[in-house]
Design goal:
By secondary structure, this protein is an alpha/beta fold. The chain is built from eleven helices and 13 strands. Strand 4, helix 4 and strand 5 form a beta-alpha-beta unit. The two termini are about 15 Å apart. The structure holds coenzyme A. The site of coenzyme A has 20 residues, from helix 2, helix 6 and helix 8.
Length: about 325
Amino acid sequence: MTCAMVIGTGHCVPERVVTNRDLMQWMDTSDEWIVERTGIRERRWISPGTTLDDLAAGAARMALQDAGLAAEELDLIICATLNPDCFFPGNGVLLQHALGARTVGALDIRNQCTGFVYGLATAAAHIKAGLARTVLVVGTEIHSTSLDLSDRGRDIAVLFGDGAGAAVLRAGEGGGDVLASVLHSQGEFARELWCELPSGSQPGRITAAQIAEGRHYPHMNGRAVYTHAVRRFCEAIQEVLDAGGVAKQDVKLVIPHQANLRITEAVTKRFDLAPEQVFSNIQRYGNTTAASIPIALSEAVREGRLARGDLLVLVAFGSGFTWGANLIRW
Ligand code: COA
C-alpha cells in the first residue's frame, strides 16, 4: 500500500521581535498578565512590505531543500491560512507562482488553527489515492496587520503572531506514513472566535461605521474557546490513536497547535502525557494559527526530537470551531 511520508520540513518567521513589554506602548497590559495566562513572552511581526506569500515561500523553499526536491517536482500545493493577502484569489496560487512550480493544483484551506491538520490529511489522501506523488502543505499567517492594538482588542492582540511553516510529503512503499487523520467542525460556535467583516453577504461588504465599531477585527469569547479547546484536543488525540491502533505511551511526540501554554499544559495533564512528549514554542512566537504546527514541527525536527520510525501526533483546535489530529510514523 502507498504511504505518504513527510520528507521535508521548513519554517519562516519575520525578524522583528515584539515582546510583551513592547505591547504596553499601545495597550493597558503587562508582561505578568500575558505570561501567566498564555505563556507567551514574545512574538514575530512582519515589517511593512512583507506579504503572506513571502513567509509561505520562505517556509516552502526550506522544506523543499530539506526534502532535496525542486519546486517543479510538486504535484499539488495546499495552502492553509485565515489571513489571505486578498479576498480572492486564494493564497495557494500566489504561492505556486512565487515558487515557480508547474501549473499544478493549488488548494486553499480555510480552517484556521486546524488548517495544517486538515491540509496534511488532504495531502495524505491525495497520495494514497494515487492522485499525487509529491505534495507541499503550508500554513502561513500574518496577524499583526489585523490586530486592534487599543485596550478594546487587548485580549486578542497579545495572543497572535506572524509566521509560516511547511512540509513536503511524498509517496513511498514503506517507512514513514500519515497513519490516520481525524477532522471535525461545529459551526454553531462560529461566532465565538471570528472576524465578521468584510462580509460577502453584506452589500458593500463593510461600512465606515462598522470599521469604527471595530467589527473588522477578530473577536473571541476566550473562556468558551479555552473550555472547548481542552476537551477537543484530548478527544482528537484519543480518536486518532484509536484509528491507528496505537497506545499513547508509544507516541514519541505530540505537537499541539500553539494556542496557549495553559491549554497545552491542561491537555498534557488531563491526557496524562509526560512533559517530554509534548512540544511547545509559543513562548517565542505566540499563536500563529495555521502556521503554528508546521513551525513547531520544523523546529522539533531540527532539535532532534524525532527520529525515523517514531510516532508523532499533530493536534489542533480553533475557530469554526474546528479540530482534528494526524497520527504520523516519522
Ligand atoms: N492585558 C491585561 N488585562 C487583560 C488583557 C490583557 N491583554 N486582556 C483582557 N484583560 C482583562 C480583562 O479585561 C478582564 O478584566 P476585568 O476582570 O476587569 O473585566 C481580566 O483581564 C480577566 O479577563 P478574562 O477574560 O477573564 O481572562 P481569562 O483568565 O479568561 O484569560 C484568555 C483570557 C484570553 C487568556 C483566556 O480566556 C484564554 O486563553 N482563552 C483561549 C484563547 C485561545 O487560545 N485562543 C486561540 C484558540 S485557537
